Structure formats: C-alpha cells, structure tokens
UniProtKB/TrEMBL annotation:
SUPFAM superfamilies: Sm-like ribonucleoproteins. The chain crosses the membrane at residues 26-46, 147-166, 172-190. It comes from Winogradskyella vincentii. Residues 192-260 form the Mechanosensitive ion channel MscS domain. Coiled coil: none annotated. InterPro entries: LSM_dom_sf, MscS_beta-dom_sf, MscS_channel_2nd, YbdG. It is found in: Membrane. This is Mechanosensitive ion channel family protein. Keywords: Membrane, Transmembrane, Transmembrane helix. It comes from the Bacteria.
Amino acid sequence: MKTLSIRHYIYDLLIEKGFSETSAQYINMICLLLAVLVIAFVVDFITKRLLWRFSAGLAKRTKTNFDDILISNKLPRNIAHIIPLIILIEFVPQVFTDFEYAEDIIEKTLKVIAVILTLRIIRSFLNSIKDYLKTLAKYKDKPVDSYIQVFMIFAWILGVFGIFSILTGITFLKFAFTLGTASAVILLIFKDTILGFVASIQVSINDMVRIGDWITFEKYGADGDVIEINLATVKVQNWDKTITTIPTYALISDSFKNWRGMMSSGGRRIKRSVIIKTSTIKFLTDEDIQRFKKIQLISNFIEQKSKEIKKFNTDNAIDKSVLINGRNLTNFGVFRKYLLTYVENHSAINHDMTLMVRQLEPTPQGIPMEIYAFSADIRWQNYEFIMGDIFDHVLASVSYFDLEIYELSVANSD
C-alpha cells in the first residue's frame, strides 16, 4: 500500500519501478539525507551572510567598539549555525524513518553538537566581554581573564553534564545528583583549578597584584612585569625578556615582593655604602680646618662648628696641647656632613622622602658610610644613572678628607 507521506515519495516510486524494499529504503534515506544537508548548507550560508552584514552595519553606526569585538570573536558566525542545526534535528525523524537505530544515534549526535555550539557561543561572548573590559582604563590592571575562565569552567561542567545526559538517557538533574557522590574525586581532579580560583579571588579582593606590576618572586626566579593573570597562572616578563609562569595560588601561599608602592610613591630608594679604612680617621688640626674651609659645600658649617667648639674649649679651660682633649672635629664627621649636603643639593633626589647619610656598625674591613635617599626618577635606567653619578662623586671626594676606601688586597702567590 502506498503512503502519501512526502518522506516515502521516493520509496514508493522505487517500489513501483521494481526495486526491493530494502534497496528502496536505503536509496530513499540517502536522497532525503542529501536534500536535508543541502538545505541546511544553503540556510547556513545565507544566515551567516545576513548576520555578518547586519552586525557589520550595526558596528559602523555605533560609537562603542563592543560590537566590533563581538564580530572579531566570531559570535555572529556561531549564532548563524543555530538555524541549520535546528533544521537537521527536526528532519532526522523524516530522513531515518525506516532506520530507528540510526535515527537515535544521529539525533543524539546532533544534540551533542548543539551543546558544543552553545558552549562556543558562550565562549565567544565571554571572550568579547574580556577583550572589551581590557580596553577600559579601570580594568586594564585587573585579572579579568581569571573571572572569564571561572565562568567558562562552570559552562563546560554544565555542558559535559548535558552531553552525558543525552548519551545515557539519564535526566540532567539525576545525572548531576549522581555525580555529587563522586565529589571527592572531582575535587581531587580539579584541585589546582579550585586553588587557582580561590587565589584569584583573594588576589583581586586584596589588590595584591595587578597587570603591569613589577614583582620579584625569588622562589620561581621571577623579576619583572606581570603581563597576564588568569585562573591557573600568573605570567611575568623578566627584565631579560624571558617569561616566568607562576601558579596563581603561590601568590597567597608564598612570599613575594611587589614594587608597586615604590612605583607610585614618586621615589626609588638609594641605599648604598662605601667602607672607610679605620686607620685614616683622625681629629682635625687647625691647618686641616683651614684647608677644609675651602670646600664650598661645607665652608659655612666648618666655620660655625669650629667657632662653637673653640668657645666650648676656651670656656671650659681645655688643654689643647693634646688634640684628644675637649671637643674636636674629625675628618670622618666632616666627610659625612659633606655627603649629606651634597645629596641634599642634588637635583635628581626626591627631597620629600627620607634622606640621610649615616655611619653603620664597624666591620673588620672598616666603617661603612651609607647614603640613604630616594631618586626622583623611578625609571630603572635613569635610577642607575643617578646612583652612579652620586657615588662617582663620593669615591672621588674621599681623598680630599684624608680618608681611604677599603680595598681587599690579594697577596701575590709568586
């Protein structure tokens, strides 16, 4: 008996021509399948063209660049695949009407593809949000990648649950509850991801690291600028242009140094010393004082200080035939005052921050004289130039105060 259904039109025609029932079924299925694939391909092509033209035209008319980013992340193209996929799913029962086992397999396959397509659309949209936020100044140093990855992880988990539900025939909720019993195993598998997720939240909330920060992490050999923060890792571009990858959770479990405070303070610390030979330190004689008065930076200081000391010694009847008696100036003390005045008058020093020249604890090599100050320019190259300029002068001026810098002498083995 002939059926009036369009899906059996070719089948009925073949039967009339004398084909066997089995052959007619297969030929009918193949013809219908080819027809549906052609229709789906044409619809897909037309839909993509229409969506692309619409989205491109809309992007040109709007002021925001968000729609341009959506296009670059292929969101319209992924959405265009929805209609052809629906057509395929709807026509599967028609095509495989005589092959129920194949119909079930193809239908499940198309539903799995639908889940994957949904995930691709979500990923394109989230990537577009990420790229757009990175163009905004207030989000440039925020770990946007981490948050997007968290959403994608949840999306993939739901997607995997959906795929298993489709393949096994178990309802989604029942499948999810079943997996709940295996939560310990899941936690073990996703341990690093969970740690990274928690760390990302803490890093963001506590503002520990931002993109662009200079950090030093000795444990991982990192010393440079943070260029990326995501759920699992933090990427640091070292000063030698190598890239160091640090686990995100290490930022809260280990100690590291963030130089952001220095960068935002307007000054970079100079903390360096020279070691003066103890044997060259002495009290100043009147001849020494007259000679040091010719050094302009401290001439007024020596004039005022020598008068104050002379008055004290006279008022207290100090016997100055022995130089150690009473109050005296030393070449070491005068040199310290000279360095302080020199640094205070240096144009590249930040005078709003701590500035001092101090004598440190004596060592077997001598007595360290340390300059503690902050350069006004925090850029590395300029900072090194400023510090080099200051200590060039320090090293050259030591001899004018009858002092010597300690140098380790190595005996000649010959």
